[in-house]
Predict the 3D structure of the following.
Amino acid sequence: MSTREGIVDAIQLLTVRKMAGKPECLEALLSYVEGKISPSEASIYGVTRNQLRGLMQRVREKVGNPFLADIVVKRATPIILRKTPIKINNNGSVPRCLICRKPLIKVLAEDHIIKCHRNLVYILTREVMEEMRRSMGREKMG
Ligand SMILES: [Zn+2]
């Protein structure tokens, strides 16, 4: 996998996590990468240390370079937290998909979104990347 493909994959992973109604995972990840919390402090966000470590590890594996992975998280996560819509309602006894209205029984929300709503995942991931590109362009010009 090329670095570029890896970065796109990592951004997609984070986008799907937000769509799945788990923004707290992204908030914890961003704070961790910014050096504001240690993994054991992830509980501040309602996230376990292992969940945070697992997410960080998956981003690093996809990007293939820990330094670059941190940059991707710092740039992409604030955009995803602000823009990417939540598509799973986790408030009921069973999570429900807001796109197709299916209750998600014995299926991980992330897996359902990727399997059944792949086009929307592509569109929303692309939106995040476009916004990253725009903000980087502004920095260069400013
Ligand atoms: Zn659905």
Observations:
- The two ends are 34 Å apart (CA to CA).
